[in-house]
Design brief:
single chain, about 170 residues, mainly alpha, 9 helices, extended
């Protein structure tokens, strides 16, 4: 018969593993996640009102696995002359002139064991909004989809894409 102390320890371990396991599995379904960014940036203004294409700023999406966050050089293509009096633009300008990147906080993240290529999806004509939501209506970017395996498989089925394990798990 286990001691009272041993039983309590066992229950704590089981509870911790249960909660920790759930947290790990749920980490990549962070729908609604919208972290505070170091510089106020509105996709609603840029992608919506101004209709700047996603690939103008996220040009690596066409040729790379990663879409990447644009460098301040891309921002400064316009903001060397546009809205230079705004505090957010002045912050970007200071970082640009110092040769430092804007320390954006990542919003969308997949587990390390998943291989996802933006290039493949862009080449197939999959709209950015399919995974990232209606970014052109978002003042603050947020995760709109679960990005869980079942969600991806549903999309692959709908688009008649490969569902072989090694397509996404290498």
């Amino acid at each position: 018969m286990p001691s009272k102390r041993g039983l309590i320890t066992l229950l704590l371990i089981v509870a911790t593993l249960g909660i920790g396991g759930w947290a790990f599995l749920d980490t990549f379904s962070n729908v609604g996640y919208a972290p505070k960014q170091p510089v106020a940036f509105s996709h609603k203004l840029h992608a919506g009102t101004r209709q700047i294409p996603c690939l103008y700023c996220h040009s690596n999406a066409e040729r790379s696995r990663h879409a990447t966050i644009p460098s301040s050089n891309v921002c400064m293509n316009c903001h060397l002359v546009v809205r230079t009096d705004r505090p957010a633009i002045q912050t970007v300008t200071q970082l640009y002139e110092a040769g430092r990147p804007i320390p954006w906080v990542r919003v969308h993240r997949l587990p390390d064991y998943v291989y996802f290529s933006h290039r493949w999806h862009v080449a197939k004509g999959i709209a950015c909004q399919t995974c990232h939501g209606q970014v052109q209506t978002m003042d603050v970017i947020r995760q709109s989809e679960t990005l869980k395996m079942g969600w991806c498989i549903s999309c692959h089925r709908q688009n008649k894409a490969s569902q072989e394990c090694n397509t996404c798990h290498m």
